[in-house]
Amino acid sequence: MFRPWTLMACLAMPLLAQAQEPRAETATEALLRVQASNRQASPVLQQQTDKERDQSMQRWLDTYKYEIPDFYRWTKISSSNNGG
Predict the structure, then answer these.
(1) Are 48 and 56 in contact (CB under 8 A)?
(2) Number of other residues whose CB lies within 10 A of the CB of residue 48
(3) Per residue in 53-68, pLDDT tens?
């Protein structure tokens, strides 16, 4: 059977975990929080020119010109390859 002090220790563990001081927020976490909240969005509407839009579309299309390296290719593994 459990001794009384073991039972008390088990019951006190969650309370001790909650009693820890909250850690300080990092700069990255603060920036991500501000970004997600959309509180500091620019009041100026951001627009692309036709030339910028064409260049970005061309960069995207150019990515399809390159062959996919072999180390990104998947091979099918069957259950018969388990050596048994």
Answers:
(1) yes
(2) 10
(3) 999 999 999 999 988 8
